[in-house]
Amino acid sequence: MANLSVGDVAPSFELPDQQDHPWSLSGQLEVSPVVLVFYRGDWCPYCNGQLAAYARKYNEFERRGTQPAAISVDPPVHNARMVGKLQIPFPLLSDPKGEVARAYGLWNEKENVAVPAVVIVNRSGEVTYLHAGSDFADRPTDGEVFAALKALKEPGRPRHPHRAPHRRPRAQDHGGGGPQRQRPPVVPRGPGTRRDPLLLPWGPRHHHGPRRPRHRLPAPEGLA
Known about the structure:
Strand order of the largest sheet: 5-4-3-8-9
Distance between the termini: 121 Å
Largest sheet: 5 strands, mixed
CATH topology of the domain at 14-150: Glutaredoxin
Shape: elongated
Number of strands: 9
Radius of gyration: 35 Å
CATH superfamily of the domain at 14-150: Glutaredoxin
Order of helices and strands: EEHEHHEHEHEEEEH
């Protein structure tokens, strides 16, 4: 079993997340540093509390350009329930045989679960922080973890880029498909001029001039 230390290269791995989709350390490191959280299982109240705390402070991880990912022996279906129960916005990875935990030197042979630990890996794949619990209740403080993240020299790219300046939506933005409605040209008006509807380029709408007399047709013979 390897004993990982700060300055070592973190072993690469790929594990399924709570949706059974593959998640790889190397793939995530292309985008940002990673905070690996090894925990015992969804049955452990200390692990629940730690994950819930990280979920509440997820914006702090994002602000520092890092991605947390938690690892346990629990299967994806259990992890999916955990994500729903605690509203966890980061992936929970399934390491059913403890292969990744063993590679990191964080395996409890007696209980067949991971040793509770936090490992920070920078984008070069180097371990910059490691806290392995001496017992099931030994966890690093949030202040310790965020201080270690602040010391990273190469934070990742923000997950949500800055939005473009606000502009009014156009018809094309909503799939209107047709041409925009053109405004009618403005007829110039000045002193002594009158806006005659008969002269407007889009035709008369209402004519307010003198009413024309109506011509009555002659009545048929015999009805006069």
